[in-house]
Write a structure and sequence with these properties.
Butyryl-Coa Dehydrogenase, subunit A, domain 1, Butyryl-CoA Dehydrogenase, subunit A, domain 3, globular, 4-stranded antiparallel beta sheet, 2 domains, 11 helices
């Protein structure tokens, strides 16, 4: 099976990397991460103008973009709007997101009840809640949209490790909501979509960790030699490379399986999510060790990638949970 991307998809990759390097240098990423969380309409409209929010994009195009947003550590709610909420949006929200007018996230964990068109209850650990305009809330067998611009008081930002993708708590108390004419079964699609794209984003993070580590070994000198000539250092870089390549294949397989509706898609996304997110954490930890003392400082950017990798590792359940699904699928076959 050939999992290579098309020429158009590789052009999208090159365009995305160029945009992120030019408009989102790591200095700006750090500045945004350390600022107060809010919806930033300017950069979001830029993503819409680039076509990143276009509903016509398929899963493989999303896979390319997810990998590049991981590599660039984009601190905008692209993952929440496209990977999490994308499959459960109705036409109105989808058009608004595509135009760069709205950004959306999905709230699933917690207990919320509906009384007519009003919601009450709490949803915990909602991704990018303080940096989007709307949230889709799952209530029993229904989906509702809450306008956060009209009701900002329902958003409670949380202190989280990864400040580039913060979590929030949604506290609803008779809050007006719009019921979406969307099949709740799409939540299954959203889960598959988000797990596959989390794996692809993890590949981008691991690639950036590898690049930072490799560059440091070529320039840093110790005892009169560049440190890359020492086996204890070079082997760590080689281990990152091996882990990256293995998990890139898994992530691409998961994206392809979801795009094709393959019968193994649930196994593919479980395997890719568990392995690729673990590999991203491993890559960042190894890169930090390669950098020595400077790798542990707040000023160095590596801890930002490390924290995003940890966010992805914990997203939608720990790795052993997804490995158990893979084992169940193997034993049942």
């Amino acid at each position: 099976m050939d999992f290579a991307f098309s020429e158009e998809q590789e052009l999208l990759r090159a365009s995305a990397r160029g945009y992120l390097a030019g408009r989102w240098p790591l200095t700006r990423v750090v500045e945004t991460a350390d600022g107060s969380p809010s919806f930033d309409a300017g950069p979001w409209k830029e993503l819409a103008d680039l076509g990143w929010l276009d509903s016509s994009l398929g899963m493989l195009e999303h896979a390319v973009l997810a990998e590049e947003t991981g590599f660039g550590l984009l601190p905008a709610p692209w993952f929440s709007s496209i990977a999490l909420a994308g499959p459960v949006l109705d036409d109105e929200l989808r058009e608004s997101v595509g135009a760069g007018e709205r950004a959306v996230t999905l709230a699933r964990d917690g207990e919320v009840t509906a009384s007519g068109d009003a919601l009450s209850g709490t949803k915990r650990f909602v991704s990018d809640l303080a940096t989007v305009t709307d949230v889709v809330v799952s209530v029993d067998d229904c989906l509702y949209a809450v306008d956060l611009v009209a009701h900002p008081d329902v958003v409670v930002p949380l202190s989280t490790t990864d400040r580039t993708r913060r979590l929030g708590e949604l506290r609803l108390d008779g809050t007006p909501a719009r019921r979406l004419d969307v099949d709740p079964a799409r939540l299954t699609d959203a889960r598959r979509h988000s797990l596959a794209l989390a794996a692809c984003e993890s590949v981008g993070i691991a690639q950036r960790a590898l690049d930072l580590a490799a560059e440091h070994t070529k320039t840093r000198q110790q005892f009169g030699r560049v440190i890359g000539t020492y086996q204890g250092v070079s082997h760590k870089v080689a281990d990152i490379y091996v882990a990256l390549q293995l998990n890139r294949s898994l992530a691409y397989w998961a994206a392809w399986a979801v795009s094709e509706g393959d019968e193994q898609q649930d196994t593919a996304v479980a395997a890719a999510k568990a392995s690729a997110t673990d590999a991203a954490v491993f890559a960042c930890e190894s890169a930090i060790q390669v950098h020595g003392g400077i790798g542990f400082t707040w000023e160095h950017v590596l801890h930002r990638f490390y924290k995003r990798a940890q966010w992805l590792q914990s997203f939608a359940g720990v790795s052993r949970k997804h490995r158990a699904r893979v084992a169940d699928a193997i034993l049942a076959s």
